[in-house]
Amino acid sequence: MSPAIRRFLPPQPSLRFVPIWRRNFLVWRKLTIPSILGNLADPLLYMLGFGYGLGALVPEMNGMSYIAFIAAGTVCSSTMNSATFESMYSSFSRMHVQRTWDAILNTPIDLDDVVIAEVVWSASKATLSGVAVLVVATALGLAQSWLALWIAPLALLAGLTFASLGLIMTALSPSYDFFMYYFTLVITPMMLMSGVFFPLEQLPAALQTVANVLPLTHAVAIARPLMNDAVPRDLIAHLAVLVAYGLVGFHIALAMTRRRLLK
Amino acid sequence: MLRANYPLEARGLRKSYAGKVVVDGVDLALAPGECYGLLGPNGAGKTTTLRLCLGLTAPDAGEIRLLGADVITEPRRARARVGVVPQADNLDPDFTVEENLLVYGRYFGIAAREMRARIPMLLEFAGLSARSQARINTLSGGMKRRLTLARALVNDPDLIFLDEPTTGLDPQARHLIWGRLKQLLAERKTIFLTTHFMDEAERLCDRLSVLDHGRIVATGAPRELIAGHIEPQVVEVYGEGVFEWAEQHARALAERCERSGETVFCYTRDASRLVHDLEGRRELRYLHRHANLEDVFLKLTGRELRD
Question: Domain range holding B256?
């Protein structure tokens, strides 16, 4: 089998990623408070700023207050940003700058385990981000249903998906600067087009079509009804899109990382 | 068929990157308890050979057995009984000295309790007992190296790989590392090191190979290599008009002369006539010494610069 094909073989699942996850957790634990505040500050500024500021001008949207509307979107965008940031900047530090992966690979652990650990770890942080925004939104009376608890597993799934996509960039990146392209060309447009700040129907038809293939759109489409005490319509289809992006993204990230490091 | 009682044996290793051959048919065999050194100029293929032996990259051809496991099919089992001191420092900067060892032990599946019991011994070995709670960025280069060595011992390995273990260290720190490696050899550990310091190789290695352009060009005990490849005496000559002198006189007085920079190296079995000639020349300065490993190395790999 040629090396180019062998790169795309699936990993052998195991629990060997756990010690690596615990290593990242131990680093995070040393910086818990600033890290959580950092996770919360940005999304809350958007949520409260737009929610109360614009909300005064926009009386109601899809049958809910504007701030409730934007809260559901912010939970998802915060999850996406956290997973993306961790799987790019932080993973790149561990892979390329600190050479932490090299040290780990000299032990009975494979690169596949390292990649799985990075995805799961980034998703863990993303879940925390999403849940932290949800807790604040709940405290402000913006989520009034037990159904909102389903947002935690949704954030985990979205976290796994966006972390996998971010790791593709990490595997291709020569330096930190490279990540700006991904933020500017992918993450920011996605945040503006996925129904976080305004309903998709406001977009021109062509852009709506684009929006419907973006993974964030589907996360928002699940989260918003859940926060508003409704079971999402087309739930399976939305989940399927997120899972598909995650699986395909993960395999590409794994193949690209193997190409970069197993030379 | 590779011999099972050898901690490491490799046959016919080949590896190329983008059409450029980096490792070109390397055979290796390390006996239990020996210190084996791989010498070579920059880019000779030392680090790639090491990565192949550890199963971190697949060879284009060849077979490797590491501590009873086939590295190509079972790389993780092979690495379980191995310790590695990499060339670049990759300790965890966010952790203390002790946490670095604890976390590294987990990668081998060593429980926290067992690791905590081992850590005082490892820290003592590294001379870092007083620094167990120190952050990595407060350690000196020598301390970091010793901690990296201690980290390579968390799983009590049978075979330790060291990639240029003393590059960038001051002489005191180097001697300390050498002392620790001697101690490990006394405990019957097997050591595989790469280096481009000849004194390091001469001092530590029972046997060594010179690698150049991906091929092993000589193997043997340091003294054997010197005796087998080079005249026993060397006179280094430099000063005004040294090249003219070499042309006119030295060629008749020494078996072999080589020019490197501003110096002429004269190799000979008996240097007395050469030294006598030089004593009468005030413009030339010279150094008369025994041949050493560096002379062998330069003879085998050439004097041109490798970048």
Answer: 231-290
